[in-house]
Amino acid sequence: MSLPKPQITSLSKTSLHSWNTILASYFKNKRFYDALQLFKRMLTEQNLVDSFNLVFAVKACFRLSLFQRARLFHSLAIKLRLERDMYVAPALMNVYSELGSLHEARKVFEEIPQKNSVIWGVMMKGYLKFSKEFEVFELFSGMRDHGCELDPFVVEVLIQACGNVCAGKGGETFHGLCIKKNFIESNIFLQTSLVDMYMQCGFLDFALKLFEDISHRDVVLWSTIIAGFARNGGALESISMFRQMLANLVTPNSVTFASIVLACSSLGSLKQGRSVHGHMIRNGVELDVKNYTSFIDMYAKCGCVAAAYRVFRQMPEKNVFSWSAMINGFGMHGLSGEALKIFEEMRSLNQLPNSVTFVSVLSACSHSGRIEEGWSHFKSMSRDYGITPVEEHYACMVDLLGRAGKIDEALSFINNMPMEPGASSWGALLSACRIHKRVELAEEVAKKLLPLETDQSGVYVMLSNIYAEVGMWEMVKKTRVKMFEKGLRKNVGFTSVEVKKKLYLFSSKDRFSYKNTQIESLWNSLEKRMGELGYVPDLRFVLHDVDDEVKQEVLYGHSEKLAIVFGLLNSGEGMPIRITKNIRVCVDCHTASKFISLITRRKIIMRDVKRFHHVQDGVCSCGDFW
User: Fold this and answer.
1) Pick from 79, 54, 87: which is nearest to 69 by CA?
2) Less Cβ around it within 10 Å: N or C end of the chain?
């Protein structure tokens, strides 16, 4: 409905009901400014104000972000004794909450003697907006004490609060209540909140089962399940859901695209990421600064930092997160010089860096061993920008010092931190102990790290590997027994390679599956030529107490080598091979990749949990500093 602006000559000749109808139509058609102008005339000329039109005036203030005008209407409500009205009060509470004044919203709430479920629900929603989940639960307790019945809106807020604090058991309880009270049927908002809550709490199977049981799935619900998988390490499932969504002719929105780009980033799937980018361009999806930034991150994490840089330069406007993403992209590829140039350009344009920016800058320094520059930027944070370093910044500095071999300086740095060192800082020092074979210090660091680390198996595995690399096999055995006694299991290492828009996964356990295949045949050929060029398998990185012949066979079956050989067999001549490892790349595999690139004249791009390695003509971009 498109309403012309009425030629109002005399309000008195038209009934209040008629003018309220026009006012409501203005609001419905998002003509909020016209709605306020009409309300103003109704007020000044004939004082035609009631709770109905006052609610629309207050809601229009919210839509136009007119905080002071909303306060004036609050004063008007008090004057007309409408501030406790069952429709006006929630509108006032909502506009205050949405425009940033939770205190004012609470004052309105407290003035209402008889609160219904809507009043309670709006106040809970206000606290939820400010991430005050425990206040939400306190209000729920108060609501029960007042004998007020729950409704679907209140339960939806409570379920969202449970999701935000990962209170899965509480969320399940509210889910059961919804079933008991028959709230869920046909309530897409409540259904979506439940799916999101289960995803946030890590109950992916529950979320998927609930999603599959919902007959009508809108774009918000699809986006929720896609985002949930992407956030929880289920990138393949996220992409699969996205394809199902398109097959069901549901048009994606900006949240969907942001989530699927995140999934592509996690997998290192450049072709999938390019496909999503192309889909958005072909379908005329308007890219905002958030979309552009997600593509910078995706291209960088998929090994194509040049494409990330092109997107960065194409952006019509950039925010601090865009600059930070580009700095981080260059840094993870070992291009610290380019990363620091972007940082200087950012500062020259008076774009203030934030805490995230400095994490990216310090990481870039760490990946390239720029100790002096790292110290300079670390000190600059508080001195020049008033940014107080947090645990993540300190961990970057520990990593920088540790990689460079300044282990004792790194330990002193940790001991003098203004806050209690966390898992990130101790973890960085433990990694440095492995690189530089500081066994005794590693044992002490592990004791500090175990109580802090959620993934304790990673600490035991790292310590076991440190023992193995120096031949302390009895300690390897004791450490692994301790892991077993605690019910911990080592995460399986795997490598993925993308060929012709399909992603193939390899693990070291697969090596027996490729006996007498093209993969084994090509590897044997490469191995012979590598040996002629001087390659000697580094048996130190077989972390088992077996003879050298078996160690050599184990090394040849590492997932990185299997993925590279598979990529060589199945990709076009001269095409780069892109592989992604879910843990740190093995040192021997890193060495082997340099020989393979020299023999085959192929570029090999390897991504692990720490950084990228661009290997070409026998040389790696990391300069063997990693």
Assistant:
1) 54
2) N
